[in-house]
Write a structure and sequence with these properties.
The protein is mainly alpha-helical. The chain has twelve helices and two strands, in the order αααβαααααααααβ. This is CWH43-like N-terminal domain-containing protein.
Length: 326
């Protein structure tokens, strides 16, 4: 055959004018024949092996799986709103009731001289009661969210503990803290919507429940933080938050003692200005309570509240109501 006669001793065939054997040249020009590969360069990786070792991955996620954020709000702004709303409303109710309805807000069962009306008095007259109820309605929602955020936050800190005794103690304290927080929020709602003029016996008992649960919640929170941080706060923000919590708790205890003392003087002895001192202590208690809860801004300075679609893959296993992103 002619093709055999063209192959030389080395199997390469007779060279062409440019020095390339005819069989190799024909193989390069024929698309149906396998093409010869250049010799590999030391240290390099061929494209076929690279594809085998690193298969192509579609970096673009499926459109239906993309995270779609509908709303994102700074958690700090939510805390500021939760604080400013009742505080500003309380100021408006005090000023308007003091100017336009002094006889109604200063009236007591002892008929003694009084200069400072109580919170129940200024929020129990119309139209201030409606303004106060609206503000508390807007206040309760974020408070419930914050309560569950704190529950998840403390639960995450508990999972970092290694001592079983401390874990058990912290877990029990967490249940107490969360329960007292919910009771306090519920009592605040009840004491707002059951005014002293409409049903004084129920209002009085709910107010006592609010005071008791509020002080107990502060004390239990400080105890829980002591268990979670036996060596003290680890960051300046945690240190500031703890110092403010302790200060507001001490102020609440002192003002509560004065509140009880002056209330007894007013109720049983009908001393002049006793109810005014009682009202002043009540305002201090309310301010200290707001200040204690305001430390949320120091505990969560950079977190955001987000409403998003397809966020299931970011959900923590042990999270309830709210969760953080990994």
């Amino acid at each position: 055959m002619e093709s055999v006669s063209m192959v030389g001793a080395n199997g390469g065939g007779c060279p062409d004018a440019d020095g390339t054997p005819l069989l190799i040249k024909a193989a390069r020009t024929d698309p149906q024949l396998p093409q010869p590969q250049p010799p590999p360069v030391p240290g390099s990786v061929s494209s076929s092996s690279a594809l085998e070792e690193h298969p192509a991955v579609d970096d673009e996620p499926n459109h239906s799986d993309k995270l779609g954020v509908h709303l994102i709000v700074s958690f700090r702004d939510i805390c500021v709103f939760t604080l400013v709303l009742p505080l500003g409303t309380l100021f408006v109710c005090f000023v308007t009731a003091y100017i336009f309805q002094p006889d109604e807000v200063h009236e007591t069962h002892c008929r003694v001289y009084n200069v400072i009306p109580s919170i129940s008095a200024i929020t129990g007259v119309s139209p201030q009661r409606y303004l106060w109820r609206i503000s508390i309605a807007l206040h309760i929602g974020p408070r419930i969210i914050i309560a569950f955020v704190y529950k998840n936050y403390y639960r995450a800190l508990i999972r970092e503990l290694s001592d079983l005794v401390r874990i058990k103690k912290a877990t029990n304290l967490l249940r107490i803290v969360h329960g007292l927080n919910i009771v306090e929020i519920s009592a605040l709602c009840c004491v707002t919507y059951v005014s002293n003029k409409e049903n004084y016996p129920v209002h009085e008992k709910v107010f006592i429940l609010f005071m008791t649960s509020s002080l107990s919640y502060m004390l239990a929170t400080l105890k829980l933080l002591k268990v979670l941080q036996p060596n003290g706060p680890q960051t300046p923000q945690e240190d500031s938050s703890l110092r403010y919590k302790k200060a507001f708790f001490a102020l609440s205890i002192a003002s509560t003692v004065g509140l009880i003392l002056f209330f007894l003087k007013h109720r049983f002895l009908c001393h002049d200005l006793a109810f005014s001192w009682f009202a002043l202590c009540e305002y201090i208690v309310a301010s200290a309570n707001m200040g204690f809860h305001c430390t949320t801004m120091l505990d969560f300075p950079t977190e955001d509240f987000m409403i998003a679609k397809n966020a299931n893959r970011y959900r923590k296993k042990h999270a309830t109501i709210s969760w953080k992103l990994d």
